[in-house]
Amino acid sequence: MSLFLRLAIGFILLIMLCWGSASLSAWHQTRETVNELFDTQQMLFAKRLLALEPATLQNVTLPKNKALLNHHRGKQDDDALAFAIFSGDGKLLLNDGEKGRDLQFADGRDGFRNGHLRGDDDSWRLLWLTSPDQRYRVVVGQEWDYRDDMTSDLAQSSIVPWLIALPFMLALLLALVWFELRPLKRLTASLHQRAADDDTPLPLARLPKEVQPLVLALNGLFSRMADLVQRERRFTSDAAHELRSPLAALRVQSEVIQLADDDEIVRKRALQQLDTGILRATRLVDQLLTLSRVEADDLRSEFQPTALAPLLQSVLAEHFPQAEQKHIDLQLHTTFQPVMNGHQLLLALMLRNLLDNALRYTPDGGQVTVNLTARTLTIDDNGPGVSDEALTRLGERFWRPPGQTQTGSGLGLSIVKNIAQLHAIRVAFSQREAGGLRVTLSW
């Protein structure tokens, strides 16, 4: 169901409920006012009758009002008011010539009560008053139906105009709602016509303030989706580009194995090359997936306090066999025990990549020194280092300094820089005075 239809139904129900409640309240208030007015009228009229001296009268009937009024072109309701005066013992002394003749004498207390006329089932409101000397009693009556009719007429006179105006008011209200919903309709049409890869922000002009947060949220979603699509495209392109060479090498080694029928040496060498190529392709895929995850996910919600010294010791212990194989002196110097709020697995991956780079590019018999202080971590090696021009490009995706003999994909330092950026760690590469490369992490 559309928003306009829901609002229309809601407005109709709300207006009808409010109009019904107001009509009922108006009818009750009008009834109370009419009863108070007519009770006051009956009381004043009864007091005027008490001021008469009807003791000398004996069943006097006044002329009928209708004849007088018709002669003077007037109108009167028989039920509007009726009166009679009785003696103390119940004899009728005076009546109005209309309904008053049917008023029945009642003894008892003075005041208002409900009763009936002789031969009439309609309910009347009767007021009885007794003269101070107890010689006669006055009764003034009025039919309840007359009061109810008067109440209905007065209530309708104030309610019916509003009832007539309700359709026009509702039509204007719905027209106003339809007019105010036009920005949402334009926004919907714009979204329908939007291309899947269009990340252009939606304009905020001519939009109500209540809709602007929605459009801002949509613009943010478009931006995030565009980044996600861009990362996915870059990942697909990088994977296709970088896996082409290892897969081609694997295919060549597979063909060599097939062609080496009886040459065991060639077959063995091809199998070794095949195993090396598989390891290289596996490592490349792992690095691509890791880089994609670090770039795509905001893992700050998984951060926790991490002690860097034990983590660094654990990573160094993993690389001791690699260092011993090349007779590299791997040293760790810690003067503080800093604790960082971060993702432990990603921090370990960052340190592992830095140590792996340092050990792979350090020649046999070289030295790799790791220094940990309260706010910095440095990794020094005495390898060949890189040129000043190459220092500025370290960490670019799939870029490796020229002249390198070690195998690699150029993703290790890219992963390091992305993890460091996630943890607000600054990464700096510099030349050592004694030769080699220094990597400095500061936070």
UniProtKB/TrEMBL annotation:
<dbReference type="InterPro" id="IPR003660">
    <property type="entry name" value="HAMP_dom"/>
</dbReference>
<dbReference type="Pfam" id="PF08521">
    <property type="entry name" value="2CSK_N"/>
</dbReference>
<keyword id="KW-0812">Transmembrane</keyword>
<feature type="transmembrane region" description="Helical">
    <location>
        <begin position="159"/>
        <end position="179"/>
    </location>
</feature>
<dbReference type="InterPro" id="IPR013727">
    <property type="entry name" value="2CSK_N"/>
</dbReference>
<dbReference type="InterPro" id="IPR036097">
    <property type="entry name" value="HisK_dim/P_sf"/>
</dbReference>
<dbReference type="InterPro" id="IPR003661">
    <property type="entry name" value="HisK_dim/P_dom"/>
</dbReference>
<dbReference type="GO" id="GO:0005524">
    <property type="term" value="F:ATP binding"/>
</dbReference>
<keyword id="KW-0067">ATP-binding</keyword>
<protein>
    <recommendedName>
        <fullName>Sensor protein QseC</fullName>
        <ecNumber>2.7.13.3</ecNumber>
    </recommendedName>
</protein>
<dbReference type="InterPro" id="IPR059132">
    <property type="entry name" value="QseC"/>
</dbReference>
<dbReference type="Pfam" id="PF02518">
    <property type="entry name" value="HATPase_c"/>
</dbReference>
<keyword id="KW-0472">Membrane</keyword>
<dbReference type="InterPro" id="IPR003594">
    <property type="entry name" value="HATPase_dom"/>
</dbReference>
<keyword id="KW-0902">Two-component regulatory system</keyword>
<dbReference type="Pfam" id="PF00512">
    <property type="entry name" value="HisKA"/>
</dbReference>
<keyword id="KW-1133">Transmembrane helix</keyword>
<dbReference type="InterPro" id="IPR004358">
    <property type="entry name" value="Sig_transdc_His_kin-like_C"/>
</dbReference>
<keyword id="KW-0997">Cell inner membrane</keyword>
<dbReference type="InterPro" id="IPR050428">
    <property type="entry name" value="TCS_sensor_his_kinase"/>
</dbReference>
<keyword id="KW-0547">Nucleotide-binding</keyword>
<feature type="domain" description="Histidine kinase">
    <location>
        <begin position="238"/>
        <end position="443"/>
    </location>
</feature>
<keyword id="KW-0597">Phosphoprotein</keyword>
<dbReference type="GO" id="GO:0005886">
    <property type="term" value="C:plasma membrane"/>
</dbReference>
<keyword id="KW-0808">Transferase</keyword>
<dbReference type="GO" id="GO:0000155">
    <property type="term" value="F:phosphorelay sensor kinase activity"/>
</dbReference>
<dbReference type="InterPro" id="IPR036890">
    <property type="entry name" value="HATPase_C_sf"/>
</dbReference>
<keyword id="KW-1003">Cell membrane</keyword>
<dbReference type="InterPro" id="IPR005467">
    <property type="entry name" value="His_kinase_dom"/>
</dbReference>
<feature type="domain" description="HAMP">
    <location>
        <begin position="178"/>
        <end position="230"/>
    </location>
</feature>
<keyword id="KW-0418">Kinase</keyword>
